[in-house]
């Protein structure tokens, strides 16, 4: 379903746009929230659900999440604006849970099953029956029938049917969840185990019923702009193509200044610093102190690794993520600035809510949410003038490459080779949490001793994050072209490379305080 624009995308965009417009225009927020479901879902005839009242009720819950409020308790009547006063502040951080299932929007899809369809031809050979390891397939009146009590969902029958008449069926959100965090409640609806969930958002973008949504800080960020705060945008390198086919960094900067941002910076600069720090970590610690080193920039990957393999917590690099390093650069130069990270990732919202990070990163918005802000203000980045000399802070190709699978490892490996040309660097990378888990299982077995491991929670890397707009392949190609426009391809030649020690001292001071 990724890469296909659907009505689910349209509804999400309308919700983000209307929340942004409400925040910009002000007035009676409670009254506006009461009216918005009727504006977003107009008329009297349902177009998407069994009736229009359900459609509007679902939109009401989406609106609550989009202003940072929790879902309402279905067992207690509460108006849409319940606890609205808790969100009408510019200082509100994300509160767990970040990813939410709207119960009455869920289709209650059945859990994983293997089924025989009506395309079964009742063949004489019945290879499906012959390969079943649990004797779960019987032939009834010439047709194959699967005993679901015996079936272990191995899929061998699926592979052997000459007519492709047997299908392996799985709830899309559960299939997309690399943490196996989604099960069923007593009514068969999807339920998230938050002890397992790492907020990657893959369930969100793979639910065809649009029943899963995350919280947003659109409202709070705009409140900060309106009251005159210096809000500085830190934009992730995956932005290319997200807001228009050929939107340049200079056009993006101009569009964001028109929205009300005081300045715009490039997160790839922080990625350059992260590259240098991880390269030094590898040289110092592998293999004398650690058998392998894993990258730190993807929060879903690092949280997953520490949850499932706590014995490897020290193997995850202690380097700060590009988002945090960029935010620290900004705050060092302008202590009064409020930083908003704008990127592809839902999990960054969770990262920014940590106590040690929230003093640097004030807001996190996805590209999808930022598009809603542009729509609300009537700003089209593709129509902006753009002076190439008035670009973002310059980053290297290495830092910009963090946006795609393999990019982090490639950047760190190149830096290691520059620092120590004689050092052999073995690299392995995985994208998607299931593949990341397999990689760590191999590491546990000692297969990756001496390696640099890169983990990315989203299949395809950051360009495939839950907050992206553009298809993954298109974004990957665009990032590769963007890398070539960089001032240098080496992180060690970054204009801010010499400031890493300064930021590390800042971190030490923060820990002391």
UniProtKB/TrEMBL annotation:
PROSITE patterns cross-referenced by the UniProt entry: 4FE4S_FER_1 (PS00198), 4FE4S_FER_2 (PS51379)
One Gene Ontology MF term: iron-sulfur cluster binding
4Fe-4S ferredoxin-type domain ranges (all copies): 111-141, 142-172, 188-217
Source organism superkingdom: Bacteria
SUPFAM superfamilies named in the record: 4Fe-4S ferredoxins, Fe-only hydrogenase
Keyword Iron-sulfur: yes
InterPro entries: 4Fe4S_Fe-S-bd, 4Fe4S_Fe_S_CS, Cytosolic_Fe-S_CAF, Fe_hydrogenase, Fe_hydrogenase_lsu_C, LdpA_Fe-S-bd, Mono_FeFe_hydrog
Assigned keywords, A-Z: Iron, Iron-sulfur, Metal-binding
Transcription regulation as UniProt keyword: no
Gene3D superfamilies (UniProt xref): 3.30.70.20, 3.40.50.1780, Fe-only Hydrogenase (Larger Subunit), Chain L, domain 3
Pfam families the UniProt entry points to: Fe_hyd_lg_C, Fer4, LdpA_Fe-S-bd
UniProt protein name: 4Fe-4S dicluster domain-containing protein
């Amino acid at each position: 379903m990724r890469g296909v624009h659907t009505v689910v995308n349209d509804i999400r965009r309308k919700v983000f746009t209307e929340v942004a417009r409400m925040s910009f225009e002000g007035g009676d927020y409670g009254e506006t929230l009461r009216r918005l479901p009727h504006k977003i879902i107009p008329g009297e005839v349902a177009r998407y659900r069994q009736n229009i009242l359900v459609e509007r009720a679902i939109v009401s819950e989406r609106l609550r999440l989009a202003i940072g409020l929790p879902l309402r308790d279905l067992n207690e009547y509460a108006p849409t604006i319940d606890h609205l006063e808790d969100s009408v502040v510019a200082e509100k951080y994300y509160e767990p849970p970040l990813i939410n299932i709207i119960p009455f929007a869920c289709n209650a899809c059945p859990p994983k099953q293997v089924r025989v369809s009506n395309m079964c031809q009742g063949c004489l050979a019945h290879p499906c029956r012959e390969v079943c390891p649990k004797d779960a397939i019987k032939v009834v009146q010439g047709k194959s029938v699967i005993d679901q009590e015996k079936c272990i969902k191995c899929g061998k029958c699926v592979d052997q049917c000459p007519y492709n008449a047997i299908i392996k069926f799985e709830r899309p959100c559960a299939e997309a969840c690399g943490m196996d965090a989604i099960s069923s409640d007593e009514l068969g609806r999807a339920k998230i185990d938050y002890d397992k969930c790492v907020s990657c958002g893959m369930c969100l973008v793979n639910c065809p019923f649009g029943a899963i949504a995350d919280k947003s800080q659109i409202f709070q960020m705009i409140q900060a702009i309106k009251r005159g705060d210096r809000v500085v945008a830190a934009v992730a390198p995956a932005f290319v193509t997200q807001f228009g086919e050929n939107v340049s960094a200079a056009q993006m900067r101009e569009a964001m200044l028109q929205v009300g941002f005081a300045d715009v910076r490039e997160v790839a600069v922080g990625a350059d610093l992260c590259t240098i720090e991880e390269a030094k970590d590898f040289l110092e610690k592998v293999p004398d102190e650690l058998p392998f080193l894993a990258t730190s920039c993807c929060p879903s990957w690092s949280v997953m690794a520490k949850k499932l393999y706590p014995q490897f917590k020290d193997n995850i690099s202690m380097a700060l993520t590009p988002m945090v390093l960029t935010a620290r650069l900004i705050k060092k130069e302008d202590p009064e600035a409020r930083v908003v990270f704008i990127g592809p990732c839902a999990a960054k919202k969770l990262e920014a809510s940590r106590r040690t990070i929230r003093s640097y990163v004030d807001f996190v918005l996805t590209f999808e949410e930022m598009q809603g802000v542009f729509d609300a203000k009537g700003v089209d980045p593709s129509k902006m003038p753009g002076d190439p000399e008035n670009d973002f802070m310059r980053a290297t190709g290495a830092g910009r490459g963090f946006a795609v699978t393999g990019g982090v490892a490639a950047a760190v490996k190149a830096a290691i080779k520059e620092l120590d040309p004689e050092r052999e660097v073995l690299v392995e990378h995985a994208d998607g949490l299931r593949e990341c888990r397999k990689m760590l299982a191999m590491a546990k077995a000692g297969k990756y001793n001496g390696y640099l491991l890169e983990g990315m929670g989203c299949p395809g890397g950051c360009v495939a994050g839950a907050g992206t707009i553009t298809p993954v392949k298109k974004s990957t190609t665009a990032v590769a072209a963007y890398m070539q426009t960089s001032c240098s391809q080496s992180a060690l030649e970054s204009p801010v490379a010499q400031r890493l020690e300064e930021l590390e001292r800042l971190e030490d001071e923060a820990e002391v305080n």
